[in-house]
Amino acid sequence: MTATPSVPACPVCGGTHATLFFSLTDQPVLIGVLWPDADSARACRRGDIDLAFCPDCGFIWNVSFDPDRIEYDQQYDNSLHFSPTFQNYSQKLVDRLVDTYGLHQRTVVDIGCGKGDFLAMLCEAGGNTGYGFDPSYEGERVSTSAADRITWSNDYYGEEHARLQADLLASRFVYEHIPSPNDFLRMIRRSITDPDRTVIYFEVPDTDLIIRQGSVWDVIYEHCSYFSVESLTRSFAACGFDVLRVEETFEKQFLTIEARVAGTDTGNPGNDTGNLGQLAADVAAFGETQNTKMSDWRDRLTQWRAEGCRAVAWGAGAKAVGFLNMLGDRDTITRVVDINPHKQGKHLAGTGQQIISPQALTEDPPDVVVLMNPIYRNEIAAQLAELGLTPELINS
Ligand SMILES: [Zn+2]
Questions:
Q1: Ligand 1 centre from 64 Cα, in Å?
Q2: CA of 59 to the centre of ligand 1 (A)
Q3: What is residue 57's three-state secondary structure?
Q4: Ligand 1 centroid to 163 CA: how many Å?
Q5: Residue 206 has what DSSP assignment?
Q6: In 104-239, where do the E strands start and end?
Q7: What are the DSSP E strand ranges found in 236-283?
């Protein structure tokens, strides 16, 4: 038994009523790093997750998160860009942003640009000039007709980049990795020298997915901050932004926010006061529901082992690392399929399963495919049918 950690003041609203509601020990700290073999994957660095909920603003965070355990570099690959479903979503988003904010021949900055796909789309769509910041960016990956207008950097974005005078400051799937979100957002605010010019766009995983839809596999170490509509709005307002739009997208898996620097010190939190009481009730029910879900899955895996059922998981992203490591399964689900060719042949953090291509399934056809994200069900079913395979599809 480890001692229960104490709960500090809420990093978003400063409230002191937060309590712990869910804990996991020894989870891999980096889900996006893939390993050359099973042994090194199993020897990866681990950490504890102790989630606290602030009833004053709805913010959820891992009080045991230690940023020193995390180091992002070019091995890190959590790109969703190979999925047509995600690509289609991103393209629509890009078109809307370009349209709404008149982003033609303007300057766009992507903070945490990953492999650069989103920034490339923004620059292609509006003839824009782009600057991408990400320590994990590797030059050879993205091919774009806008290449001569884009500057890539392996630095972290900072106040010194104010000189770029961005019309759009975008940041997708970064804010949930920041242990002091308001400090980060205030730094961004200080980098905006012309409040009338710059729109800020952030996108994060939606806490709704985890808490209300009960997707416990999305609880991962590197996500130290979990936002709801309420807490994301609160965070932006507290840091001096006027919130223009908050939206739950991608079947409530993602949360997007658009904002401008407020005229006054305290921004306008928008109309959406949300429903903190309901969120609090859902959080209270979460621990028990999820412990039951995990124990049901352990029983199912035991049964599959006994029956000699050949099971694979589909989707070697965060959910697969969460799913396999929370269940501690190495021997029942022995392979993980992913359409991203850069992941194939490598091994998943923690439990060490090898990642294979869909085509490799034809050599040893599975009886069951566990879908890490049901949103891709049609896409996956179509690929299996094309390969002449008819396994049972089960949601994780
Ligand atoms: Zn709070």
A1: 17
A2: 5
A3: coil
A4: 33
A5: B
A6: 107-111, 129-133, 150-153, 168-172, 199-205, 225-226
A7: 241-249, 254-261
d(CA 50, CA 24): 7
Using the mean position of ligand 1's atoms as its centre, give its distance from the Cα of residue 54 in Å. Answer: 5
Strands 46-53, 60-62: parallel, antiparallel or unpaired by DSSP?
A: antiparallel
* 28-40: pLDDT as tens digits: 998 888 999 999 9
Residue spans of the domains in the chain: they are 84-278, 307-395
Ligand 1 mean position to 331 CA, how many Å?
41
Alpha carbon of 224 to ligand 1 centroid (Å)? 14
Distance between Cα 67 and ligand 1 center (Å): 20
What would the two tokens of residue 133 be? 């910041």
Give the pLDDT confidence of 140-194 residue by residue, as tens digits: 667 899 999 999 999 999 999 999 999 999 999 999 999 999 999 999 999 999 9
373 C-alpha to center of ligand 1: Å? Answer: 29
Cα angle 309-314-318, degrees, rounded to a multiple of 5: 125
Third-level CATH fold of 307-395 = Rossmann fold (3.40.50)
Cα of 236 from ligand 1 centre, angstroms: 13
Q: Measure 17 CA to ligand 1 centroid, in angstroms.
A: 8
Cα–ligand 1 centroid distance for 9 (angstroms): 8
Q: How far is the CA of 221 from the centre of ligand 1 (A)?
A: 20
Q: Of 259, 329, 254, 339, whose CA–CA distance to 299 is shortest?
A: 329
99 C-alpha to ligand 1 centroid (Å):
34
| 148 CB burial (10 A radius; 0-12, 13-18, 19+) | exposed
Supply 114's token pair. Answer: 């990953």
Characterize the bridge pairing of strands 354-356 and 254-261. Answer: unpaired
Quickly count: other Cβ atoms within 10 Å of residue 320's Cβ: 27
Report d(CA 22, CA 61) in Å as an integer. 10
> How many Cβ atoms from other residues are within 10 Å of residue 308's Cβ?
7
- CA of residue 231 to ligand 1 center, whole Å: 7
CATH 3.40.50.150 fits 84-278, yes or no: yes
Give the model's confidence band at 125: pLDDT under 50 very low, under 70 low, under 90 confident, else very high. very high
- Whether 307-395 and 84-278 are alike in CATH topology: the answer is yes
Report CA(126)–ligand 1 centroid distance (Å).
38
